[in-house]
Structure prediction request, 191 residues.
Amino acid sequence: RCWIGQNGLHCFGRWRRGAEGADPGKAFKIVEAHTERLAAAHAEAGKANIEKALAKLVDREKIGADIAATTLSRIEAVANYAPMADADLIIEAATEREDIKRKIFENVGKILGAKAVLASNTSSIPITRMAQSSPDPQRFIGIHFFNPVPVMGLIEVITGLATSDETVAIVRRYCEALGKEVVFAEDEPGF
Prediction:
């Protein structure tokens, strides 16, 4: 789960290993989100998993050791959603369980800025349906990173029925800034 703010790229929850390499030049914050609690210990465990994933990418010569070290140095484990308040873009990447994702959207919605975009990294749940749990369906969109993120050149963008053109433009610029090719998918189960 990830967001972009003035302080860079931030992730929370069980960020899929590899996605941390999507923007190695930005700062990360990891918040481990359970349906009823946020826990710093789990966020630290997530950071440790990212460190292992980065080490594997270095071993396979997919990224340089300097990029791995820089990326890891920018990761901070935090215990609540408050650090996301200044975010321009928040990307959720929870397990593919709609109830968990909806709970995250409701909680993030409490701190989401008036112009911030909320996105899901889902690979199968309809965006229009999930947007119902967001504070503003016009600012809700799907951004699906293909794994392994540092290696794959595509990002799938999925618009919901209410997604605004402005939201699409913001997300397109973000994806292109990552050096990824944007492909659009229809909003249907399994895309």
